Amino acid sequence: MRKYELVCIIQPDLDETAFKGAVERVQGWVSETGGSVDKTEIWGRRKLAYPIRKQREGQYVLMNLTIDPKSTSELERNIRFLEPVLRHMLTTV
Fold this sequence. Notes:
This protein has a single domain, classed as Alpha-Beta Plaits. The mean pLDDT is about 95. The chain is about 30% helix and about 50% strand. It starts with a strand and ends with a strand. By secondary structure, the chain is α+β, with helices and mostly antiparallel strands. Strands 2-3-1-4 form a 4-stranded antiparallel beta sheet, covered by helices on one side. The relative contact order is 0.34. It is built from 2 helices and 4 strands. The protein has helices at about 15-30, 70-80, and strands spanning about 1-10, 35-50, 55-65, 85-90.
């Protein structure tokens, strides 16, 4: 098991329940693969450096994860197909 940081930029126009649903879905995928979410920080709405899908702002979320390195590709594939997530980045700590 290895420690990772996952930063997701989620669409800014989502209501609170849809936003929490997207975050909980990502956390669920981590736990399905045998990993754990150590900490979740919601950074809030911030301006993007350039427009992504015609959006100029995004809601940032930082998650500290402990997950098997073999499971990271499956996690990233699932996040890529999650519609509310504009961008994501998974890095080792």
